[in-house]
Design brief:
CATH topology of the largest domain: D-amino Acid Aminotransferase, Chain A, domain 2
Radius of gyration: 19 Å
CATH superfamily of the largest domain: D-amino Acid Aminotransferase, subunit A, domain 2
CATH class of the largest domain: Alpha Beta
CATH architecture of the largest domain: Alpha-Beta Barrel
Number of strands: 15
Largest sheet: 9 strands, mixed
């Protein structure tokens, strides 16, 4: 795997990057992260990702000393030699840092800041053409008063368990319900349904991550004249929607054509998701071309 990694400002090949076994991110999952990608080799919606990173860190009382400008410089230094003719997927990880075996944050004088740069892998055309299947996981989404899903933390065991269910059933993703039986999101993506021409997505207080791509889709829909709204959705609603799709930073938008054993709508990707994806890509291309040098 071609990768370049930046650990506290030091850039190395991926197989040379190391952190201490006493890092609290490794020991306790005590940290936060962001995943983003480039278009035209420009980090897309970087300001929004960094704002969310800092918001998540604040919820953990975790300091992120570098300025946004410093973090952007580190990102560009890290990705410089990766996939020079194509785009890059980036992951920023901030942990509590190295300290004694204790939960006391004061034991860690400095956070650890890691940036990983990998060649970006496009979603195969066949997936966009044919769609994917998902399952409704038996494991529930974390309760907001437990490990709040709105914090993009390194503690991802809830997501891992849900995704393991999907893998065992040969599905592409897993939908998580909250403690009230409402749809929240998938293990690695946000969830959208289309009903009577309106795009619906679970509200943030259902217990989900406020996705950067999710929020950008509200803007894309407004440009197209396609209503995109938050709405409480339950398992039974999945049998009554015309289209279903998921969104994430690295996968953009992927149509869902089957939930468990039941087809969604016609059982084929729908037209509204296709229109949204086309405009999404146009917007991403335009916004990043204006940032490209020269």
């Amino acid at each position: 795997m071609q990768a370049t990694v930046n650990v506290n400002g030091v850039v190395t090949d991926g197989d040379q990057a190391v952190i201490s076994v006493f890092d609290h991110g490794f020991l306790y999952g005590d940290g936060v992260y962001e995943t983003l990608r480039t278009y035209n080799r420009q980090p897309f919606l970087l300001d929004r990702h960094l704002a969310r990173l800092r918001a998540s860190a604040d919820r953990l009382t975790l300091e992120v000393p570098p300025t946004d400008a410093d973090l952007e410089t580190r990102i560009r230094n890290t990705m410089r030699g990766v996939n020079p003719d194509g785009d890059v997927t980036l992951r920023i990880v901030v942990t509590r840092g190295v300290g004694e075996l204790t939960y006391d944050p004061a034991a860690c004088p400095r956070p650890t800041i890691v940036i990983i740069a990998l060649p970006h892998r496009r979603i195969p055309d066949a997936i966009l053409r044919d769609g994917v299947s998902v399952v409704v996981a038996r494991v529930l989404r974390n309760h907001p008063r437990s490990v709040d899903p709105s914090i993009k933390s390194n503690n991802l065991l809830n997501n891992v368990l849900a995704m393991q269910e999907a893998i065992r059933q040969g599905a592409y993703e897993a939908i998580l319900l909250n403690h009230r039986g409402e749809l929240t999101e998938c293990s690695q993506s946000n969830l959208f349904a289309v009903r009577d021409g309106v795009v619906l997505t679970p509200p943030r207080d259902a217990g989900l991550l406020d996705g950067v791509t999710r929020n950008f889709l509200f803007e894309v829909g407004a440009e197209l004249g396609v209503p995109v709204r938050e709405a409480v959705l339950r398992h039974a609603d999945l049998a009554q929607v015309d289209e279903l799709f998921i969104t994430s930073t690295t996968r953009e938008m992927i149509p869902v054509v089957r939930v468990d054993t039941r087809p969604v709508g016609s059982g084929r990707p729908g037209p509204i998701a296709s229109r949204l994806l086309s405009r999404f890509r146009d917007r991403a291309d335009l916004l990043t071309r204006t940032l490209a040098p020269g």
